[in-house]
Amino acid sequence: MTFSLYGPFVFGHLHCNLKNNISPPVDDDVCFALHRKYQLRRSVLAQSLDPMEVCGVDSEGKEFNSAQEMWREEIGEEGDETKKTQWYRDGGVEASVDGVLGGYGHVNDADIIGSEVFLKTLLQERLVNGETNQHLVALDCGSGVGRITKNLLIRYFNEVDLVEPVAQFLDAARENLASTGSETHKAANFFCVPLQEFTPADQRYDVIWVQWCIGHLTDDDFVSFFNRAKGCLKPGGFFVVKENLAKQGFVLDKEDRSITRSDPYFKQLFRRCGLHLYQTKDQKGLPKELFAVKMYALTVDTPPKVHRTRSKTSSNRPQIIK
């Protein structure tokens, strides 16, 4: 299984955004099918109470009435092992930043800047609290060639562990990180294990960073991974999930066996994992023709509710209906 193939925007050979536009070259029939499908189903999706029941489409233009229908076709009714093995098959891209970003290496700077702003706020609120002697440890899931560790995590954490199933990518990560960091900020461990089979060490991590890789996991393996990983967070620790978003339902990439989920789809899976949504942020500065990207901060503990009171003077003023 190659998590790193699930780059920021690649949908087979198509590149889609949330306006359902597809940049050339694409097949006209597929383009029409995608557009028509979303137009016809929009009212149904808006009324759906269960995100898992929303419809989706694959990279060949086939429509699905629900996520369950798609998973039955892809991995069988009860998770057929042969079909599941095929789902987690390996692929191949160049072991470089441009390769793991699906040919969009030039978005690296915008991605890292957006992630850093999000991370700094979370660290201040959840972990640092003015202390300077904390020993912080992060896990980079689906690390690929170490892009996120090198450009972001190693600057904020004393140790970063990397988990990546493709040995070629992990070797490139070791090389890329050999001269990065210091004795107090370093890449510590390199695990060559598929995420659906990986169990992190108990209470080792302050942050578990999951970016552009979880789309390769089936729903059941998604839930199973986070259930295992919850016990690997230190008190106050949290997950960051940063992923592409489908505008509605889901988009299945038949070529590299990945699924782009919608925001309601993600939130339903997070609930199944027993995780609480602490904070979210939209990634800015990416090309408009690409999938939108969202960051989720997730905690095991329930975030405290903030009770706000309104003054009598302001309560009678005209308000925007939300």
TrEMBL record:
<dbReference type="InterPro" id="IPR008576">
    <property type="entry name" value="MeTrfase_NTM1"/>
</dbReference>
<protein>
    <recommendedName>
        <fullName>Alpha N-terminal protein methyltransferase 1</fullName>
    </recommendedName>
</protein>
<comment type="similarity">
    <text>Belongs to the methyltransferase superfamily. NTM1 family.</text>
</comment>
<keyword id="KW-0489">Methyltransferase</keyword>
<keyword id="KW-0808">Transferase</keyword>
<dbReference type="Pfam" id="PF05891">
    <property type="entry name" value="Methyltransf_PK"/>
</dbReference>
<dbReference type="InterPro" id="IPR029063">
    <property type="entry name" value="SAM-dependent_MTases_sf"/>
</dbReference>
<keyword id="KW-0949">S-adenosyl-L-methionine</keyword>
